[in-house]
């Protein structure tokens, strides 16, 4: 495992809800990242951790390899890859995301 993959692994496994995004929860830098934050908040999750990939080019590229997923944002819950903003939205609309996040 490369250094960047190790760093990503530690972030993913070190936080119950981890969102890799463009910008921050307070200032998303793209619409998809903003929507991902809104979905988490709509699920009642306030204590999620974010990582701004715009501040770290290694992680920005490495996260795509880590999950074998080409786009950002990427949501991880309990160390498992959930998906990007479209999948989050679909799961939210079906109630599946709320169930996943309710398991503490």
From TrEMBL:
[2Fe-2S] cluster binds at residue 30. Residues 17-82 form the Glutaredoxin domain. GO terms for molecular function: 2 iron, 2 sulfur cluster binding; disulfide oxidoreductase activity; metal ion binding. Keywords: 2Fe-2S, Iron, Iron-sulfur, Metal-binding, Redox-active center. The keyword DNA-binding does not apply. PROSITE patterns: GLUTAREDOXIN_2. InterPro entries: Glutaredoxin, GRX_PICOT-like, Monothiol_GRX, Monothiol_GRX-rel, Thioredoxin-like_sf. Belongs to the glutaredoxin family. Monothiol subfamily. This is Glutaredoxin. It comes from Rubrivivax gelatinosus (strain NBRC 100245 / IL144).
């Amino acid at each position: 495992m490369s250094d960047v993959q190790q760093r990503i692994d530690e972030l993913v496994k070190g936080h119950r809800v981890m969102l890799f995004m463009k910008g921050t929860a307070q200032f998303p830098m793209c619409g998809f990242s903003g929507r991902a934050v809104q979905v988490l908040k709509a699920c009642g999750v306030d204590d999620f951790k974010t990582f701004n990939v715009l501040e770290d080019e290694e992680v920005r590229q490495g996260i795509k390899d880590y999950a074998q997923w080409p786009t950002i944002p990427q949501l991880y819950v309990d160390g498992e890859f959930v998906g990007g903003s479209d999948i989050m939205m679909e799961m939210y609309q079906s109630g599946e995301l709320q169930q996943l996040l309710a398991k503490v």
